[in-house]
Amino acid sequence: MLDKPAPTRSATPPKTGRPRLDLQDHLADLEAAGLLVRIDRPINKDTELNPLVRWQFIGGVPEDQRRAFLFTNVIGSKGERYDMPVVVGALASSPAIYALGMGQPVEDIGDAWLRAMAKPIAPVAVTDAPCQDVVVTGDTLRNEGLKRLPVPVSTPGFDAAPYLTATLCITRDPESGVRNMGTYRAALKAPDRLVVRMVAREATGAGGYLHWLKYRARGEKMPIAIVVGCAPIVMFTGPQKLAIDMDELAVAGGAAGEPIRMVRCKTIDLDVPADSEIVVEGLIDPDVLEPEAPFGESNGYVALEAFNMPMQVTAITHKKKPVFAQIISQVTPSESSVIKKVAYEPLFLAHLKTNLSVKGIRRVVMHERLTNLRPVIFLQFAADTPRTEVWRGLHGAATLQSNCGKIVIAVSEDIDPASMDAVLWSMAYRTNPVDDIHLVPHRGGVQGAQYSPNKSDSGLLIDATRKRPMPPLALPTREFMEHARTLWEELGLPALNVQSPWHGYTLDDWTDTWETFAKRTVAGDWEQTGKETLLRQRKGLLPETPVRPGSNMED
Length: 555
Hints:
single chain; 555 residues; alpha+beta; Pnp Oxidase, Chain A; UbiD C-terminal domain-like; 3 domains; 10-stranded antiparallel β-sheet; 15 helices; elongated
């Protein structure tokens, strides 16, 4: 697909189901599968690139039609022309793209991560490192350095700088030696200087931030390597919530089914994935902070200027013909939210099912649009699940991670938790707020809470499950809606964007007598029903008096 040195692994899709361990091989697989769009016309990285890709997330494009975008003719606002292509959306524009990078069907991804955490495979050291084919240091670094990279502007009109977003920031605990990999934003400041934000979730103990605190206490500069573009399976490990003392590269190896190849950096004492596209090496002085941002954030707002960690770049290394990788982040839905959603939902479900043994739990859905995935969680329960189990599930989902589950809503299995309309319908008619809504104090803040005046937050738990028999949903039943859809398509009418619910169904308050009435009606035999109800006429009743077929009032 791309003009690049001979890959270290076969260019044919793996037959074992193992994921690709080279990003450019992964891009070739995406293109072969019709999941990548190649853009060869000139595209301005500062004004056009991210807005173009953003449209597939906010323009009503169905999730399964989202694609990765490969830009081969990248320019800048000052007339720059870059010989390095830019790829956006190649990690997780859709669950299908994530699944290809993971080497697993979407429905098996949760179990695959659990297996990887249970059976990690330690990385191996190598010396044949494509990521070090080109080494930029000295005067070239000071004068050109980061300016040689086609770093897009993520939120034109608001961002204060181009940002590295598809980052794998590698640091090491100075005491235990355990590595951490985090996906942190990094603002360009000079050809040889970045400012990295590692403190978005400091209250929860983000690994890179904890390392920074330890280096600060020791009075030492912290080595950091920022990988830009590597195997998806390695990138996916960065956002995972793992134990602080767990080597995330070993978990990546467990997910890949083989060790991740690692090489020592050229100017700092850290190891990086050898098959990476680009590596930015440097040191962070923990005694100094520098203003960083504004920058569009994933909570839906622009993060305003704050003091964060300046990184003095000591070297930039890359392949002979690298691809610059960027992710669509900021306002959700986005590529970064899909990365988390595909992994988090099955992990939350496994926690409720296995760790807490919550009975009746069926699905966990984390809301994406604008809300940043974490704060709003929907739980789907089987019919007739005891309310005690529903409440155990609500509390379990709200407490698994401190920044997830600010609002947790439980619905019954007839409600699609991915449909906000269906959820609101359930809340409107299946809750009594005084009984079914609980406020929970003393929560940690969601991401972005650092911009709020409150230092602690609260939670909202809602039981919107069905608690008694109810009449059917008043839409034509499935067989009639399916037939009508066939007619619609035969008539060439506008394409449908089907939302749940789209057909009627029963909810237990329905008798055989009423079913007979309905079948007669569609057969044109409604007069027979009229004859029967004539015999059931009664005096002395009010219209609101309930008269059910088979009740004593009919005797």
